[in-house]
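JOB MANIFEST
job_type = single_chain_structure
chain_count = 1
residues = 748
[input]
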Amino acid sequence: MFSLYRFSIPLVVAVLGLALVAGITAQQFLTGWFLRDVELRSELIFNSVEPAVRRQAADSDEAGLGRTFDGISRDERVLAIGLCDAAGRMVAASRNWPGETICREDKPAAGTERRGAVYERRQLSSGPVLIAGFPLAIDPTRNWRLMVLHDMGFASSRTTAALTTLVAFVGLLIALGVLITVAVTRVTLTTWSRAIVQSLDPRTRSRPEADIAPELRPVVREVRQTLRDIDIGRMRGSPIRVAWTPTTLQEVIHDELPGSEVIVVSNREPYIHDRDGDRIIVRRPASGLVTALEPIIRATRGVWIAHGSGSADRETVNASDRVAVPPEDPAYTLRRVWLTEEEENGYYYRFSNEGLWPLCHIAFVRPQFRREDWEIYRAVNQRFADTIVAEAKSKNPIVFVQDYHFALLPRMIRQRLPEATVITFWHIPWPNAEVFSICPWREEILDGLLGSSILGFHTRFHVNNFIESVDRFMESHIDRELSTISTGGENTLVNAYPISIEWPPRALLGLPTVGDCRRRLRERLGLGPDVKIGVGVERFDYTKGIPDRLRAVGILLERHPEWIGRFVFVQVAAPTRAKLEAYRGLQDEAIAVAETINARYARDGWKPIELIVRHHEPDEVLELFRAADFCVVTSLHDGMNLVAKEFVASREDDRGVLVLSTFAGASRELLEALLVNPYDMDTLAETLVRALSMPEEEQRDRMRLMRELVRDNNVYAWAGSMLLEAARMRKRREVQSHFGATRWGTAP
């Protein structure tokens, strides 16, 4: 309909303009034509009656003149005829001669003269007339005039009839012209659109330009160049080439996504208000996620939606459950969502952490799936979706959805905000299709995630597992080359975006030197300067492999007794999810293993394992890393594991050894670490010995390479790469929206 108006309105206006000019011209032509015709008729009348009138006038036969004139004026067009003398007196006239004085005006000023005759149009009381005055010499002394009056009313009526016919004809031409033009235009545009879309399809984009219709070549050439520019921009956005910082992220928002609205959704809040006696304190959880996304949401003054879990959270929000953060310099809005204890237990503790967490980590803890937990999980997801829609100020916001707590949320957002760009990041591993099939609601979870525009995982391996799961359980079209999945006309880009940490870590500022950190830790533990120190820092989670790691220390001491008294392993473990039996059992098991090993090898105030069960602040953790000779990360399965990268970032002295599980996503990047199978405790023990014995030169070479990678692929690069993908999608959609739906037509 829009194209009909776009083409038809200018055409109608142009044709009407031409019709107006043609109408005026036609009216002038017809009027002149009728005048000339009447003038000729007047001349014919004069020529035909001249001899008789001359004779009758010479004989002063007024009665004869009257009869002659009455006979002529019977013609319906002849109004009257009369004879005027030189003094302007009427000599004789037909009976219908008008009352107006005509004879006195010998040569009207407005008249025209042709071959001695004078013609004048005049408006009389009876209507418009043409007065024709012919000189008539009766004798040498009497030069009279024969006056012939024609009624011109017929000319006006004929002109009106002719113009009416002309207007009707032009109107018909306009209607036919509009219909034909619109039809031809639509057919042409459709043909062009199909041809251009085919020329842009990556599978045929290399087709020679000679195969494209000549009239389309300039357009196709221009669009291809635009798409190439977008791709080049994407390549330039590679984290390998760009020093990613918070400022870089803000520049991406400003340059690539100007005016965009950003909404972040996560289970955990970026700021928690807790009550401490009579006062309220603000806690900022140590989270790489907050570090990465806060510069984006600050730049856009967006909204962060999260579960309000602090003991004083309700006291600090307004009537709309909003609070401006950060407290010291408010830049965006934190929107809190409240959950009952039953909802938190069902959605978070049970379905998310007793079901999805062990399912995805394959840590040999049986996933627990209960229908009542699933219903609560779905209801909580719907509540967050409703909150997002309520907070959205535009129809196409950018929504960052974080983690496995919100698997259904992307689809729920897509249904309410179809033009939104939904970026979902799955922070834990994705199992293979056979393991994932354990979940009773596997199709619903896959469909929920495929509501995303961009779905990110830490590693390509997890991406492949997800695609295989979709391939097995969903009806879809999968483009493995482009890593896209199409379901129901919608497309999702599934890709690997390895998360990282900020560079340099903020907690390093003001931290003592490496030497001071080593001295202070030794003083706290009562260790001599020659005692080597290994560290492990995790939550008490069964996926981290803490008991196996401690058993490997026991094996090391058993097989290499020369290290007894010369080596201490410091394991920091923060209690977590204590409501769940599996976590309580793990903590008890780890404590028992440490006590057993210490009881066997401790001597003279020395013990091989220091198990510290409490939460450590970021500066305490980094101090441990800087003081250690090696760090052990032996996750049984992990999406990424940022402990490994934090250890690397803390070692500004280019020293230290990283022992890293091959089942942690970080092992795909930190290839200079000592990679190990955490289930093989004998090999793990030997790897610890190798770490204890590694020369400083080798440590330096390995650490430098790892530090370069963590520096370049920092957490800002992680967020920036997804933002650039979102910007590319939006630009591509804008370009292709002009040429009809394509493979990205309904995509984000």
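[summary]
The longest strand covers residues 127-139.
The mean pLDDT is 86.
exit_status = 0
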